[in-house]
Design brief:
homotrimer; 139 residues; alpha+beta; Jelly Rolls; three-stranded antiparallel sheet; 4 helices; 38% strand
Chain lengths: 139, 139, 139
């Protein structure tokens, strides 16, 4: 018996709070595992991206981008940018608040998501990035 | 040996950032599992509710509702509402930022919570809802 | 076979949104477990502290403190403080939004963190505190 089944998703993002629906990729790892009852852990590597769930829909995506742009403006004089001659302090802040991991139960071989609830990667960095999401299925 | 014990909580909320203490329900699932050392994963299905921990106390609940009403006002012209003829864009935003899952270690058969730390479901939708929280105990 | 290996970190913080890098402590528990493929769950006990990941760097730490001080000022007339003759309502709010737990996959015996991604405890309470972080390694 294997208690954990591991997988990885590799994807390209456009950065700038790009919201990417990764539900199908997570579900594919789950399917490969054959697990009926357990928990999927998804985690994005990197300090300028985050994972959460939301209804993946153009309006909600735009609202999230608007809200975060107002609360953490990219063009403000952040310390991170001044100390490191960098430009993505706002990305670090957004990622830290939302967080890199979610845990989704598996019941009857399916993720316990709602019909309008998708797992999304949000890439806050201010340029396109290659991202790795690690997906572990525990049973 | 069963490595995962699954349970579900079903509850009615009043919506409108109703904060519901689900600690006793989670603890009941844990007790049924008989697990002494492990981790409890709790997850709420749906894109307009979230899970976190807080001191469940009238003042803190009111403060959280005040803060979120200011940061994400219900009556603002959000894109989600305009595109979908909907009214709960603010609920989607709050749920995405706080997130649907928490993982709480079990030590000596008890949740590793503080005395003034409860597991809460926060329902941001703008109407009463029936909610399902899935609780998985891994050992 | 032991499916879960448990450990605890005990640490002193300065409070007031002190950000403490706990990556080495979490990695030490992982090393003791000997787990090659699995997931580490880290959880802070208490309702005025939170866990997340970020680049642990002076600028980013200062930015996070600035942002949270603006969004949830300590000196505002919060209900929690008025009802309980308390002074740390802002700490409760910050902890509830950021959350007490993270789950980090283990691949090849290492945490799936990025080079500039550390696991941090953020202590929002308005005084120095002794904190316990529970670290469970599931395999």
């Amino acid at each position: 018996m294997m208690a954990v089944h591991g997988g990885q998703l590799r994807l390209s993002t456009r950065g700038n709070t790009d919201v990417v629906d990764i539900t199908d990729g997570v579900a594919a790892v789950l399917r490969t595992s054959g697990v009926e009852l357990g928990t999927v852990v998804a985690f994005v590597t990197g300090s300028t991206a985050a994972l959460t769930t939301m209804e993946y829909e153009l309006g909600g995506v735009a609202d999230l981008q608007t809200l975060l742009a107002e609360l953490t403006p990219a063009d403000r004089a952040w310390e991170h940018n001044e100390r490191n001659h960098d430009t993505n302090a706002h990305a670090h802040l957004r990622a830290a608040v939302i967080g890199p991991s979610e845990s989704i139960p598996v019941v009857g071989g399916r993720l316990a998501l709602g019909t309008w609830q998708q797992i999304v990667l949000v890439d806050f960095d201010d340029r396109p990035r290659e991202r790795v999401v690690t997906v572990h299925v525990h049973s």
